[in-house]
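Q&A log
Question type: sequence-to-structure
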Amino acid sequence: MKRKASHAGSWYPASPAALRAQLNGYLELVPRALRRQKDCRYIISPHAGYAYSGATAAHGFAALDFQGVKTIFVLGPSHHVYLRTCALSKCSTYATPLGDFIVDRDLTSELYGTELFEKMSISVDEDEHSLEMQLPFLRLVMTDFLNDHPEHPEPQLVPIIVGSLGNADEIKYAELLAPYFARDDVMVVISSDFAHWGERFRYTYYSDATPVFDPLADEQPSSSTTLTTSNTLTKRVLPRSQREVRSLITDLSRPPIHESIRACDFLGMHLCSHGSHADFTDYLHETGNTICGRHPIGVFLAAQEALGGLLRPIKWLYYDRSSLVESVTESSVSYASGVSFRRLEQGRH
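Response status: OK
Response body:
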């Protein structure tokens, strides 16, 4: 059974030539020093339409190193169906305008045999965009690598929809998946946008705290500083209703809304890199940040902890927003691109 590229022609071009041109245009904007980074096997990538998130996503995909990779896990959230578990695809092939992916049926059968996964219907599979939006970029950069290395076998796909998991369940799935993530022939793509701000998202968090952390900087404060700042930021949260935010930001001495959004996102990104799974969970509870891939990210962070430092902390390469919100009548979605590496043979990174 083949999963069709159901969002082609709406979220991204259906024409292979137009799609390839669009994606290559974004990839060409990535600094050469960030491309094909040795042993880069793990990325966090946005899943909005490419007109909004393509430049951000390009930074993660450009960094990937496919040498030796046989299996690619793609974990994304469920936007349309409420799940309390994780779900695997029934399909044997995932289509993209740039070429198909073969699903690793042996590995998905192995996972299904644990009785911790359900199987999504083809309609649920094709309605969900969080996995699909990773695939054209992935197919393009993988094909470029395979053209340069014709002897290399083509990696297969393991798509997983991550449901609305509690903390204990995130850890349970992380402990199950961690041994796979640790393999030197595995690549992992985590699909997530960051803050969805605005009344239409039912999220109008505002704080006048200034950003203390810049997750895009090379030097970062210690984790102990992170926890103190997290408490400081959340204690200064201002009322979240649209009417109250409107009255507060009429004071021109306060930062604009888009600066508050950035500060909130940057703290979450910093905790992904330098905090713990518990720190990130606490941050989500305290700020309510609408990070749609929080559960896939949570599973990945818990897997990092389960592996005892085998994977390097997430390094953030790029951050952007669909717009810079100045008024409570506006809205925006945030996008971030992060990468991680295995610690083995990582002295060069």
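Response note: The first strand starts at residue 2 and ends at 3.
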